[in-house]
Amino acid sequence: MTATQPAPHPLTGQPFTSPVPPGTGWPGDPATARTPRARDAEQVQRLASGARTLPVLDARVSVCRACPRLVTWRESVATTGRRASFADQPYWGRPGPGFGDERPRLLVVGLAPAANGTNRTGRVFTGDRSGDWIYAALHRGGWAREPFSRHAGDGQHLDGARIAAAVRCAPPANRPTPAERDTCGPWLDREVRSSPRRCASSSRWAVSASTPSSPPPAASAGPCRARDRSSATGSRRR
Ligand code: SF4
């Protein structure tokens, strides 16, 4: 997919082509031009398990190209398929890595990014209605600095919490395939191993993805336990 003519970032004004090349100054971009890219499921597994920190994991997620259908879709939306109301903005056009605390106690897991949300803004569940609900709930619970998340670079900050998706690229019709979920799973497995005490999930798929088989689900001894969405509204002080 051909990159577009540069357009100004809506907050910083810096011009970017779409999809955004890694390491070119997009707010919060965790990657550089040298970040290794996964091009198949085996490479996702190797790069995820070898990420020693969550920032390294985020960088690797953000340049992943392991699912051909999703790569084609996310980049086609970013170049020729933008929503009319965002046509003057650059689109991130890359996977949405997790966002939030590097040592989370709470991990919120959704299904997948939106084509004109994360795929535009570069931050998970940002710029769409699902994000409005999630970040407002986290703010009420004392986990988020702001009750909204509008765009990477808007000053939002999570303390003790992290948000991630079971599938990191926007899928056509908001429906990733089971194979795509499985290919993307090692990224989330690695995030779950960052030792959050609680997981909150907003869909059955995300619930199943946030309780990986290795290590086993936390119902007995694992580091994280799938919870229903009410967990996201709980106070951090509980
Ligand atoms: S869905 Fe996950 S595994 Fe597939 S290309 Fe996106 S980040 Fe990579």
From TrEMBL:
Biased composition (Low complexity): 197-212
InterPro entries in alphabetical order: UDG_Type-4/5, Uracil-DNA_glycosylase-like, Uracil-DNA_glycosylase-like_sf
Lineage: Bacteria, Bacillati, Actinomycetota, Actinomycetes, Kineosporiales
Uracil-DNA glycosylase-like domain residues: 97-234
Name of the protein described by the UniProt record: Uracil-DNA glycosylase-like domain-containing protein
UniProt biased composition (Basic and acidic residues): 178-194
Keyword Hydrolase: yes
Keywords: 4Fe-4S, DNA damage, DNA repair, Hydrolase, Iron, Iron-sulfur, Metal-binding
Region of interest: Disordered: 1-40, 171-238
Pfam families named in the record: UDG (PF03167)
